[in-house]
Amino acid sequence: MTDAARPTAATFSAQAWQANLPVYEAIRTMPFNMALADGTLPGERFRHYMIQDAHYLIAFGRALAIAAAKADDADGLVQFAQAAQVAVIVERSLHTDFFRSFGVDPAEFEGTEMSPVCHHYTSFLIATAHAESYPVVLAALLPCFWIYAEIGRDILARAVRPNAYDAWIDTYAGEEFHEAVRAVIATTDRAAATASPDVLARMHEAYRRASQLEWMFWDSAWRLGAWPL
User: What's the CA angle centered on 159, arms 179 and 60, to 5 degrees?
Assistant: First the structure.
């Protein structure tokens, strides 16, 4: 684990990270991220990933906004309302930066539907955000923050530079993103500290499912996943 966060062993986050370490290792060593690090990732696969990520970020922003509405204090309200805003801003920046760099025009993005995995992941987040309690919502949202931070730093440590994907690497390995991740981990741990055993169990279930979907998202980009019919 990098310095994105170093929670103590008794916290929810430390327990969830350890319980799902095999999932993280599978993500870290999957073909998409290995090729991204050494600069050999085909542009077609990265374009697929970026288009689906733009779709994903819109839904992620909506889930964050619901988390803000469910927050149990003003700090949480501000934190996740701002995070929702950032998710939408990042999605828009893809149109002007990454999309332009990799030859994706707005019409192509608008005409490309969500892949099955992106649809599954975003549906899971929105459903969880609406149906579950605040601590469980945070647990479902946490892997997207935390795994990206860890993968970003891991790739940075072994990346071939210059790299066609330097901007992506620098974004997720950067201190600004890691500071935001540490804040989400801390908020999640505070919510878990007073949660009942049943809620904690649901938090772990949500964290695990979101972690699995993170792997599936990258794998789908590697396979250029699309609807079979």
Answer: 45
